[in-house]
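Thread: Modeling a multi-component assembly for a lab meeting

Hi all, long-time lurker, first post. My supervisor asked me to bring a structural picture of a complex we are working on to next week's group meeting, and I have zero experience with this. I have the sequence lines for every component (393 residues in total). Could someone generate the structure of the whole assembly? Inputs are pasted exactly as I received them:
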Amino acid sequence: MSYQVNQKGFYGEFGGAYIPEMMHPNIEELKNNYLQIINSYNFRQDFISLLKNYVGRPSPLYYAKRMSEHYQTHIYLKREDCNHTGSHKINNTIGQILLAKELGKKRIIAETGAGQHGLATATVCALMGMNCIVYMGAVDVERQAPNVKKMRMLGAEVIPVHSGNKTLKDATNEAMRDWINNPVDTHYIIGSVVGPHPYPDMVARFQSVISEEIRWQLDEQTGREKPTRVMACVGGGSNAAGAFYHFLDDEDVELIGVEAAGKGVDTNETAATLALGTPGVLHSSRSYLIQNEDGQITEPYSISAGLDYPGIGPMHAHLFKTGRAKYIWATDEEVLQAVLLLTRKEGIIPALESAHALAGLEKILLKPEDVTVVNISGRGDKDMETYLNYFGY
Ligand SMILES: *Cc1c(COP(=O)(O)O)cnc(C)c1O
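Re: Modeling a multi-component assembly
Sure thing. I ran the full set together rather than chain by chain. Output:
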């Protein structure tokens, strides 16, 4: 069984490139060049050097002693929260900006919901001296004011999108429209393992540095490369794809993704795509979606804006369908308890998204001899207002 994308851009029955004809030249150019570029010696040198000296990699693999005692098992945390700009998103934007440069592009566009991907994109554009336009739903521009200010300070133009529900889905539509109108000089940096082929594969490769490091770091600390299981939160699925990547063919390593259930999978306020979704096409790829009987996308909800997406990357749809990875979910309430537990046990305030992976620890059987690696995708700074309101400090 292969868990990698095939030549046509499919993971089993999922993925592909269901694009409007107008977008064809852009996608063809990318598809025909991405592998050769990202596997070239010069690209690897630049990518590895920036990850090390700019992002601060390798991110630590930390044995969480008090968390391990609490759960009577062994828990390691992969600390993507320690990266420059505070999350795993920067791994992908560094890769894509180098690729864009190689393709001779001068102008970068991106979509963002919570603003973490917009921030990581604005950051690498400042680094490379590229023009940066970030499309963001007008509602999100209001909700995520600090990230909007940072992006503008970094020199990016943030364009509020007033169509539809004025959130991530609408920002993505607007970014695609821009790309169609500017096919020659513009590269579109997508922020997760979603969208048309080759984006899911390309983003997974850039994020795979996470599991590449976990293997040697775990070996260094325990004498074995493989944990019992790896756990990560899943929105579009990029941090999970990166954490799973180099373990996909080791069937003895359990892979667990944790989705955002919002107020519960039995309510309409949820974003647990694999728990509730059915196959369909969104943003140019076939995967599972939360949709009604007419195929209309249901608005997703989660306390964490980074997981508030109605779809999931095609790689995860395939891992789910084949049973290679398991997907569970956590509610807002469970996630906030997990935030507090990590904060008080280890002195680490995680992002709301990452705390979904931690909340998953409550829902599975952890044996004393098990070694579980939990990917901490980002830090909690951006969520402080939510935490302060909820915990009442
Ligand atoms: C964006 C984000 C996520 C969700 O995106 P994935 O593509 O599913 O990883 C998770 N955690 C953090 C900190 C994020 O910023």
